[in-house]
């Protein structure tokens, strides 16, 4: 595994491999890697000749400076995990390398990016599209891998690829959960032991709501989730939305879509956690 810090070095290493016909996979990450990232990297390694993993805490996608400062950084552990997963290259650029001048590009994929996270984190998806499009330009991957935990991000990146004609395949990978159900997230590292225990209520509620939904309306199911989180100590619901998994628009009736997905954001103490669940699967 080779660690590379500059665009020039990465492109110099990848060009001859691409010229020899080797396929290139990319897993963009912000580091603080866990088993969820490992599943993306292992799939990337299995499906491509060359697996590139980028590790870059992208400042332009943080609308909250405090959140950016507190974002966990674990470079030594990250390198170990990536080596074990069989990554070929780890790209760890500086902020100046990725943004030698301010990126003023504006991306708009309305209505996908105006709801849910788009509403509560203004500018977040613009920053995600800035960095992901740069990485696509630099690496020119055949495939890029993203987790379904960031369900809205995945939908927006698919739309960006479609609209901007990036010649690559986006591969969405299932959420990886702890044994007890908590969705893996780099932010979990910031939870105290008490909050870690309290956070469990989020996935538990989502799983219970899937059973509840079988005999209740969309409105009743939303209320079920909202009340469960409101009554849980230490949790504060930012939103729960039942949406069509393709358009991300809220549904009013189960008949409105054959792909209903519930997306949730909850503050557990100071830590903002997201999760989602598909209602048409067991
Ligand atoms: O999902 C993430 O970790 C980030 O949003 C991404 C895709 C690496 C862009 O910075």
What does this structure look like?
The protein is α/β, with parallel strands linked by helices. The protein folds into two domains: 2-173, HUPs (Rossmann fold, 3-Layer(aba) Sandwich), CATH 3.40.50; 186-276, Pantoate-beta-alanine ligase, C-terminal domain (Pantoate--beta-alanine Ligase, Chain: A,domain 2, 2-Layer Sandwich), CATH 3.30.1300.10. 41% of the residues lie in helices and 20% in strands. The protein has ten helices and nine strands. It has helices at residues 7-19, 35-47, 65-70, 75-85, 95-98, 117-120, 124-139, 151-164, 193-213, 218-230, and strands spanning 2-4, 24-29, 50-55, 89-91, 143-147, 169-173, 235-244, 260-268, 271-278. The strands form two sheets. A six-stranded parallel β-sheet has the order 1-4-3-2-5-6, sandwiched between helices. A three-stranded antiparallel β-sheet has the order 7-8-9, covered by helices on one side. A hairpin with a 2-residue loop joins strand 8 and strand 9 (271-278). It is globular, with a radius of gyration of 19 Å. Bound molecules: pantoate. Residues 28-30, 58, 61, 128, 131-132, 150, 153 line the site of pantoate.
The CATH architecture term of the largest domain is 3-Layer(aba) Sandwich
N-to-C order of helices and strands = EHEHEHHEHHHEHEHHEEE
Uncertain runs: none
What level of helicity do the residues show? 40-55%
Biggest sheet strand order reads: 1-4-3-2-5-6
Structure ligands: pantoate
